[in-house]
Amino acid sequence: MLKHLLIALMPLALFACSKPDSQSQAHQTSAANASYSIASPDGNNVLQFTLSNGKPLYEVSHNDQRIISPSAMGFVFKGDSDGFGPMDVTGTSEISLDQTWQQVWGEKQGIRNHFNGMSVDLQETTGQKRKLSVEFRAFNDGIAFRYLYPQQGEGGLVIMDELTEFNLTNDGTAWWIGAYQDNRYEYITTESALSTLDKVHTPLTIKTDKGLHLSFHEARLVDFASMTLARQEGTAFKADLVPWADGDRVKTDGSFTTPWRTLQIAENAGDLITSYLILNLNDPNKLEDTSWIQPHKYLGIWWGMHIGKYTFWESPTHGASTQISREHIDYCKKFGIDHLLIEGWNKGWTPAWYENAMHMFSFTESTPDFDLKTVTDYAKENGVKLIGYHETGSNIVNYRKQIDAGMALYQSMGVNDIKIGQVGSRLNMKEWHHGQFGVRYYREVLEKAAHYKLAVNFHEPIKDTGERRTYPNMMAREGARGQEYNAWSEGNPPSHTATIPFTRLLAGPMDFTPGVLDVEIKQGYAGRDVHTTAAKQLALYVVLYSPIQMLADLPENYDGNPGLKFLQDVPVDWEDTKVLNAEVGRYITTVRKDRYSDDWYLGSLTNEDAREFEIKLNFLDANAEYEAQVYADAEGITWEKEATKIAVSNTSVKAGDNLKLMLAPGGGTAIRFKKL
Known about the structure:
Beta-galactosidase, Chain A, domain 5, 10-stranded antiparallel sheet, 8-stranded antiparallel sheet, 13 helices, 36 strands
């Protein structure tokens, strides 16, 4: 009852507190201890802002349960170690929005943007009397806020610290990756008590002891340092901005707008995945013509280089030769896969290409055994488009000198897609990928690619914060331990792909490169293994969302494989997405509806444990029958025993039916529901 009363009184309260009279001492005193609240449209999420003795604080509740207790806000600037002095509220405003916008491509075509918001304007009462505004938004699936600092004649203003706190009221289980490590985000997720963390990347996913699922992240990261979270004590966290090499956190011209600090809130794990809060906080599409941006599946001269069959560099087994490229184009045509990625065709590759050494690549000169025009012409003749590749080795000085020539070359060859790698622990061997230097660099490259009509797949990237809404040529990025780690390291455990849908993929699409059906890796480095069943590899195409999906295996391993048909059929662009069951790190079952047909697709996968699910098919059209084309783990297998065996079956189903899924240890199931 109290919650509904708050919602009813809120517009009046905001209006009554709006624009206090700066000449009135009574208003000044009241404003210095003011309190304002907004609630989500459904009333479940409440965000309260308080000015207590001139200090800004915020707190968050869900269904009358406090999630974040009063937490500090603000900044420390260079030469001003104390941050803001006491502040007054000088004005407030409110906004409510309920609209639906259409994605150019995506996991859901129509996105509802529904929130209540308010803006609070603040000013110091002493000293420089600096101004600061804070915008708040409350959605049904979480809350967000950001800071706006207007130009106040302070050219060269440098942020040394952001004081934003996230004081969680309850402990819980957290899934996290430690910040400030050389391999960026490419680590196995750790599961531990929230109260044991140190400094971690976002998204940070939590299941509280009260049973709520939370995810902390940020949205619309533009010309700012990305945010990590540093635990203070207990379950209290603070924003920790990734620094420049000189120790500065954010360099400004005297004004700045921070990214949105976001908290997604869900009653169950699956609802985190179908939250579109991050996208809704980004700017609308800036590209007038998007006809050249095409979601697709692709083959690559890639896995062979990772397992040691081919080399990236010039050698008798160089992968990116004209001859091997033509053979892969033939496979593309045979399988009906219309894109091919060729890595290593250009000069500059050596056996030490991945080392931190400001390695020099050419982005226009081919190796002697590769002819770009011959290969692109042959691809066109066979209905195949090439995906370009720029590996920078994190030598950004070298890349910036050549980027226009390299991208123009691809454009002249009819190439509309490019993979860009930044292998190296630091950009220019100096700056963090996710500091302000890196944020500027990645945005510069993305905008440059749009100019040359190139859709981008970033590897070794800055984290995703929803840029794909604004620049839909931002297709996918790596930013986690992908498939290649199974080729030359101890590999990814079966729980890895049951975890990243609730962590890394909450930020946005990932180029995981699934589809290795020879999961025992019969060729290449001895003793390596993909650590899944082949059926689970098929399920990844539905569970791990990306508008570009690689068929990552050696193409000869698809010939005659019963799983190939599913890989040929499964779309990469969806009308709708639903999560049927989920538990972080344990299992997930996702269904998606094809954007261009009436068919649905299901992917279900598990960690090391075998599972049985009874799935209700009520997502299907109630007035139709479907053929369920099922690709399941063969009976008796595990991810460690006969893992390549797939059991294929067909059965007729309708919306009122239940379907039993049997997942082997480390296994999965993929299903196409074809409308009859």
